[in-house]
């Protein structure tokens, strides 16, 4: 369970990155109701290997409770001039406490601080909680849906209306 004492901070060490990858794998398995996947783990490692703009982590002094990985423009698989919010996850037990919103805000702010005037991300069309979060934070869908690289589900690019 999460208390009110979590801290959102930037990180750049490999141990934190490894813990974030493990958190991503667990969060995807929970979201999709499937066992943890080596394919999801490999894809997350690829994303962490991309040119990084920022890694924002929330923790309470222990393992990460959530994180947001922002990578360089164009690392989302298509040419773009916007920083790419590559991964955003909150541990299932820590959801519902505003952590995702704080991480999203911190990620967009970190992209702006790094000189990027826009952020984009990919979101599954059927992930209603994530879409509600992104919409409330000023992100809007752009373009047509495309199949997700791992599960084939319809996915769409979302862009921030403006960086804070």
Walkthrough of the structure:
The chain contains 4 helices and 7 strands, in the order βααβββαβαββ. It has 164 residues and is an alpha+beta fold. It has a 7-stranded mixed sheet, sandwiched between helices. It starts with 6 loop residues before the first strand and ends with a strand.
Query: What helical percentage do the residues reach?
Result: 25-40%
Question: Ranges with pLDDT <50 over ≥5 residues?
Answer: none
From the structure provided, what is the oligomeric state, counting identical versus distinct chains?
A: single chain
Strand count, sense and barrel status of the largest sheet are: 7 strands, mixed
Envelope shape: globular
Q: From the alpha-carbon coordinates, what is the Rg to the nearest angstrom?
A: 15 Å
Strand order of the largest sheet: 1-2-3-4-5-7-6
| Separation, N- and C-terminal Cα atoms | 31 Å
Beta strand %: 25-35%
Topology:
Blueprint (H helix, E strand, L loop, with lengths): L6 E4 L3 H19 L5 H12 L2 E8 L6 E6 L11 E8 L8 H15 L5 E6 L3 H9 L2 E9 L6 E7 L4
Parallel strand pairs: 4-5
Antiparallel strand pairs: 1-2, 2-3, 3-4, 5-7, 6-7
Helix pairs in contact: 1-2
């Amino acid at each position: 369970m999460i208390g009110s004492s979590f801290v959102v901070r930037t990180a750049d060490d490999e141990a934190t990155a490894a813990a974030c990858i493990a958190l991503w794998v667990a969060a995807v398995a929970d979201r999709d109701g499937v066992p943890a996947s080596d394919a999801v783990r490999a894809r997350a490692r690829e994303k962490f290997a991309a040119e990084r703009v920022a890694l924002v982590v929330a923790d309470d002094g222990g393992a990460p409770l959530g994180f947001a990985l922002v990578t360089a423009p164009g690392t989302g698989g298509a040419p773009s001039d916007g920083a790419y919010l590559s991964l955003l996850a909150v541990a299932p037990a820590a959801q519902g406490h505003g952590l995702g919103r704080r991480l999203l805000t911190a990620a967009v702010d970190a992209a702006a601080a790094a000189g990027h005037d826009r952020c984009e991300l990919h979101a599954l069309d059927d992930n209603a909680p994530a879409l509600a979060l992104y919409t409330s934070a000023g992100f809007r869908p752009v373009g047509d849906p495309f199949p997700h690289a791992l599960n084939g589900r319809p996915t769409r690019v979302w862009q921030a209306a403006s960086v804070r």
